[in-house]
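Progress note, sequence design subtask.
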């Protein structure tokens, strides 16, 4: 097992007990891209968590464009149930 520490301008993230095989895979991928292992991990974290936020923002934007249904219509749908 390896210990993986990442230092950035904003914070330091230390992850203990990272399997050596995983560290090697990340290093190889970073080398192929011509970037540091730390940058590869930052990119992975950003793509994972920034995308989630972007998806939520798109859902909210779409929600705002949907027509508002009158309360009576919603009650009718509830009473009808599923076919």
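Output:
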């Amino acid at each position: 097992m390896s210990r993986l520490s990442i230092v950035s301008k904003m914070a330091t993230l230390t992850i203990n007990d990272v399997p050596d095989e995983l560290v090697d895979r990340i290093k190889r991928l970073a080398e192929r891209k011509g970037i540091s292992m730390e940058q590869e991990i930052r990119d992975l974290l950003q793509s994972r968590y920034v995308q989630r936020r972007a998806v939520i923002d798109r859902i909210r934007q779409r929600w705002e464009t949907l027509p508002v249904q009158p309360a009576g219509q919603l009650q009718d749908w509830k009473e009808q149930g599923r076919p």
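The chain has a mean pLDDT of 87. Work on this subtask will continue into the next period as scheduled.
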